[in-house]
Amino acid sequence: MKLFTSIYDVSDIHQLVSDAISLKKSPFANEQLGKHKTLGLIFLNPSLRTRLSTQKAALNLGLQVMVMNLDKEGWAVETQDGIIMNGTTVEHIREAAGVMGQYCDIIGFRSFPSLLNREEDYSEEIFNKFVKFCGVPVVSLESATRHPLQSLADLITIEELKKTEKPKVVLTWAPHVKPLPQAVANSFAEWMNKADYDFVITHPEGYDLAPEFVGKARVTNNQDEALAGADFVYVKNWSSYTDYGKMLINDDSWMMTNEKLKLTNNAGVMHCLPVRRGLELSHEILDGPNSLVLNQANNRVWAAQAVLKSILESICLP
Ligand code: CP
Question: What pTM does this model have?
């Protein structure tokens, strides 16, 4: 693998899950693979899990790691082409990305959407420019439309815990106080469709995801109906795709609770974190036996390690 920006960069997701589970059992089996190689982790937005789990994964592989919060610690970066830079931006992404490529063998990059212009966000303009101009393999640490390292960790979690070959997995919208990207929900849908589970998406009217991400999933605005018999429930807020970036309603009744859990097949409850307690997910679920949020967070390490190992093999081995 030379690039990890979406599921389309992965030739065999089941092999990648299997590699991740092997690495979980033997974290240091490939500790020579990254020797004398450098991973750069470049953030335009905040992070806890992605930053620490990817760093830990890299250290397990013997990589050196450099982390930069470019939005706070770097010069203001211009992304438009052909512009006369007589405003507030100081250097162009062409040079900034190119320079980082001089120092790193692999770069992880995080760039959230503006949520102001759907066409711009969904074209992944900033992310694609970074990939083009840095000139080295890139791992998405979450882009405007996708969060594939999270989705891989989620798939690992389900594969480890599922009791049937084809579990029922429900992605349910949850309330929030501000508009959030669709990236986690998009990506989760993409990976669940590929895994060929019994996959259902439920949300209030107006929160349909982009059709290319919904794929073959069943969609309903009736949360109770969706939850019936579910083996796994993935809770996530996202802003509207159709009325782009807007919060249309904020109905508290969509919060996942123990009462709703009774509708399911004693489902494992998932969330990528960070989570707003008492708003997106009840305290009782997060503190109870059905919560899988720490399993998911743990699997972020093995997801990142499997991806970095695959990229290192493609650049190190003949
Ligand atoms: N789930 C996730 O990506 O968390 P961070 O934003 O803290 O990295």
Answer: 0.97
